[in-house]
Amino acid sequence: MSNFKLITDKIVNAEAAAELVIQWQSVKQKVVFTNGCFDIVHRGHVEYLSKAADLGSKMIIGLNTDISVSRLKGPTRPLVDEKSRAILLAALQFIDLVVFFDEDTPYELIKKLQPDVLVKGSDYKAEDIVGYDVVTGRGGTVETIDFVDGFSTTSLIIKIIDTH
């Protein structure tokens, strides 16, 4: 099997992801979930996602679709299309699944997947994180991870504009 096929096989719909989560949890694998736009994947994303993956044995990313990113970030975003963003994320060895969602929040996806650990950046208080009630209600945990200073998609966009 080609490396590209192995990468694209990690990009699944919510139903397929939910089935895999049930299988993984049945053999006591801890499923971690985080979400985001990941418009321009950079070092800050990789470090954050790597630390999140360390909190369990399987790592799932809920990825905003292009339509969802545009609603959240404005009509000029995303800069990178959803398929490209998904492939870049799926190429990371510690990512097990990438699942698109169209809504502004991943609440319905979290309800469908029932992860054991929910992770967001430390700019959130755990109890304010979308899906907190779902995950803690079934005995899971909600964790926050510090961002890497100086790395953000917005700062990269500004740097590109300023230097070109």
Topology:
Elements: H1 3-8, H2 14-26, E1 31-36, H3 43-53, E2 58-64, H4 66-73, H5 82-90, E3 97-101, H6 107-113, E4 117-121, H7 132-137, E5 141-145, H8 153-163
Parallel strand pairs: 1-2, 1-4, 2-3, 4-5
Report on the structure:
The chain has 8 helices and 5 strands; from the N terminus they run ααβαβααβαβαβα. The protein has a 5-stranded parallel sheet. With 164 residues, the protein is of the alpha/beta class. It has helices at 3-8, 14-26, 43-53, 66-73, 82-90, 107-113, 132-137, 153-163; strands at residues 31-36, 58-64, 97-101, 117-121, 141-145. The protein is 43% helix and 17% strand. The longest helix has 13 residues, at 14-26. The protein has one domain (3-163): 3-Layer(aba) Sandwich (Rossmann fold), CATH 3.40.50.
Short account of what is shown:
This protein is an alpha/beta fold and 164 residues long.
Features:
164 residues, alpha/beta, Rossmann fold, five-stranded parallel β-sheet, 43% helix, 17% strand, globular
Structural class: alpha/beta
Largest sheet: 5 strands, parallel
Uncertain parts: none
Largest sheet, order of strands side by side?
3-2-1-4-5
Count of domains: 1
Question: End-to-end distance, in Å?
Answer: 41 Å
Order of helical and strand elements: HHEHEHHEHEHEH
- Counted beta strands: 5
Helical coverage, percent range: 40-55%
At the fourth level of CATH, the homologous superfamily is HUPs
